[in-house]
Structure formats: structure tokens, C-alpha cells
Amino acid sequence: RKEVEQDPGPFNVPEGATVAFNCTYSNSASQSFFWYRQDCRKEPKLLMSVYSSGNEDGRFTAQLNRASQYISLLIRDSKLSDSATYLCVVKTRNDMRFGAGTRLTVKP
Amino acid sequence: GAVVSQHPSRVICKSGTSVKIECRSLDFQATTMFWYRQFPKQSLMLMATSNEGSKATYEQGVEKDKFLINHASLTLSTLTVTSAHPEDSSFYICSARDWGISYEQYFGPGTRLTVT
Fold first, then answer.
1. For B16-68, how does the pLDDT look when each residue is reduced to its tens digit (9 = 90+)?
2. B2 CB burial (10 A radius; 0-12, 13-18, 19+)
3. How many CB atoms lie within 10 A of CB B15?
4. What is the maximum alpha-carbon separation in chain A?
5. Do A86 and A101 form a contact (C-beta atoms < 8 A)?
6. Three-state SS for B44?
7. Residues whose CB is less than 8 angstroms from the CB of residue B21 and which lie 6 or more positions away in sequence, other chains included
8. Contact B56, B69 (CB under 8 A)
């Protein structure tokens, strides 16, 4: 079983749509959780951290359920510029583990 | 914000040659640097963790004699792919951990290696 699992997609949505990504992780000792965005042939860039209380940054909302070892990302009113691969990242004390990523394409 | 650079950004080499990739933290000291590899349409896979002044810790399945890592200073780590083969063609990304206040991990822009 992979340490971090994501639905690879692809998700193809129209502009303005709401889209949700899910992620599960296997290491119960994981300490921190993040969503990264990776554009084609570029390095990953931090989108947002994920907290148990849930957190929101503009159109993006992230949720963490430690009991279920489940992380989610919700994108509202999607824009063309949101097209990218979204990586679920789980951090233990010593390193980070990446999900395979979920590919999102937002179309006009 | 913190910046991590990598050099070269792209390299093409012939099979059997060695390639060195540099990773630098530009405005912070990085006692720990990480090397990842990413094949097309796959996730980043951690290859090794390097700590300044000590030997790197390699992930299972990564050949330490083939992927030589040197972390001689707090701002520089190098990855040398020795006797490269076409299957080593990949996107190599380093990241550096800032042990200062932020404890963040910052990624370099990556190096695309093509072995012909």
C-alpha cells in the first residue's frame, strides 16, 4: 500500500466549477499535512497547509481527518490558472512523502 | 522567501558518463537537503536525505554507489549520477530544510536529465 494515495484523475472541469480532491495516508505518526501544486515540468510549490480544524485560503479549503487519515482539498469557482497537478504531502518528523498527484484541467 | 537553486536546469549526456547536479540554498542554512526523482506522470520519490558533514541516508532501492551525494557545506549539496543510463533520465529535484524559525522545506527548480 502506498504511503500517500490520491485519485490520479484527470479532473476536467469548466471554469467556475467546484472540484474536490481526496487523499489518504497510512502512517499514523504523520505530523504535518500539505497540499502542493505542481505545474508541468516545474517544481512543486506549497499551496497550503492542512489543519484538523480545517482552513481556508480564498477559493481553497483544506480539511484533515486524523482519525480516518484523510485529507481533502476543495477548489471553488475554479479558474483556468488552477490547471495543474495537486500533490497531497504528508510530513513525518524526518521527511515528506508525496502522493502521486491529481491532475486538474479547467476548461473555458 | 527562501530560495533554493539547482544547476544545471537541463542536461543531456551520453550513456556511461557521469553528471553532477548542484543544489544551493541561497539565503538560509540548510543542515538537511533532500533529493527526489520524478518520472513522467508519477509522484516525487525521495531518493536520499543528506545532512551536512555526514553520509547521506538512501531510500530502499536507491543505489548509493550510483547516486553519489555530497553535502559539504550548509548551503550546497551535490548529486552525481555515475555511469548514467537511459533509464536514469528523469526530473531530479532537491529540497532544503530551513532549521530556522520557519522549519519549512523549499524546493529547487529541478534538473531534467536526459541520457542518450
1. 999 999 999 998 888 889 999 999 878 889 999 998 888 899 999 999 999 99
2. middle
3. 12
4. 42
5. yes
6. coil
7. B6, B7, B8, B11, B78, B79, B80, B81, B92, B94, B111, B113
8. yes
Grid coordinates 505530523 are at which residue?
A: A31
DSSP letters of B52-102?
TTSPPEEPTT--TTTEEEEEEETTEEEEEE-S--GGG-EEEEEEEE--SSS
Q: Tell the burial category of A7 from Cβ atoms under 10 Å away from its Cβ (0-12, 13-18, 19+).
A: middle
* Phi, then psi, of A18 in degrees rounded to 5: -105, 135
Given this model, what pLDDT does residue A88 score? 95
Q: Do B44 and A98 touch (CB under 8 A)?
A: yes
Tell me, yes or no, if A19 comes closer than 8 A to chain B by beta carbon: no
Which chain B residues contact residue A43 at CB under 8 A? 93, 107-110
